[in-house]
Every structure is written in structure tokens, then in C-alpha cells.
Amino acid sequence: MSINLRVAKFIAVLSFLLISGVQENGVPNFALILIYFYQFLSDLSNSVHPIFWEGLLTIPVLGLLILILVNRNYKVLLSCFVVLLAFLVYTTGLLHNYHRINTAFVIPLVLYIISSVYVIALARKAAA
Q1: Digits of tens for pLDDT over the chain (128 positions)?
Q2: SS3 26
Q3: pTM value?
Q4: What angle (nearest 5°) sits at the alpha carbon of residue 27, between those of residues 24 and 31?
Q5: H or E, element range at 59
Q6: Rg (the chain; Cα; Å)
Q7: Ramachandran region, residue 93 (left: φ > 0; alpha: ψ -120 to 50; beta: rest)
């Protein structure tokens, strides 16, 4: 794997984790993933409250991020990109709070999209 591809994958994953929500109390994705996962595990061990099932989303998201880092097949990378983009629409509250979009959301999102497209293009070029 070329160094350009490794760096672009690292930038794509890092920019995905730095995208913050556009809700009133939006947090970056890395904090949101940790909070969701902790709450899910806490609810599984203490059955006092109903289980926070959104925490179950963190397992496939972390798996997709790892898959982006280790995989070279452009079709798999493209599907990971699309699924993570759909996850962003859900977790950032983009559908209901689009009027609150700011630079803390736009810059990492654009960086994620550009680096992901670059990764897919490099992987496709390496496969050909």
C-alpha cells in the first residue's frame, strides 16, 4: 500500500471522528461514539433503565473505520464511505437542524468527503 493511500485513509478517519453535530449541544463524533458505547454497556449491566439501543450503532461504525484503514478494495471502501455518510446524517442531526450548520461542521465534513474520494480513486487506480 502506498504512503499516499495510508495518509489519505488516516486523514479520512480522523476527519470523520472530528465532525461535530449541529444540534444545540453537538459533540464531535469520537466523543459521541464513546458516550453511546458507554451508555449502551452501562444499560446492559444495570437493567434499571431501558436499554439505550443507539449505542449498538457504535460497533459497526468502529468496524467500518477499521475496515477503511486495512482494506484496499475500492468497492468496499466506497460502501464504507456511503454507510458512514448515512451515519453522519443520523448522528449529527443534519435533517432537523440544517439551519445551524457552521464551520466546525463543514470543514471536517468537506475534508472527510475529499479524502474519502481520494482514497477510493487511489484504490481503484491501484487495482487497475
Answers
A1: 688 899 999 999 999 999 988 877 778 889 989 988 888 888 888 877 787 777 888 899 999 999 999 999 999 999 999 999 998 888 888 888 878 888 888 999 999 999 999 999 999 998 87
A2: coil
A3: 0.88
A4: 155
A5: helix 58-70
A6: 16
A7: left
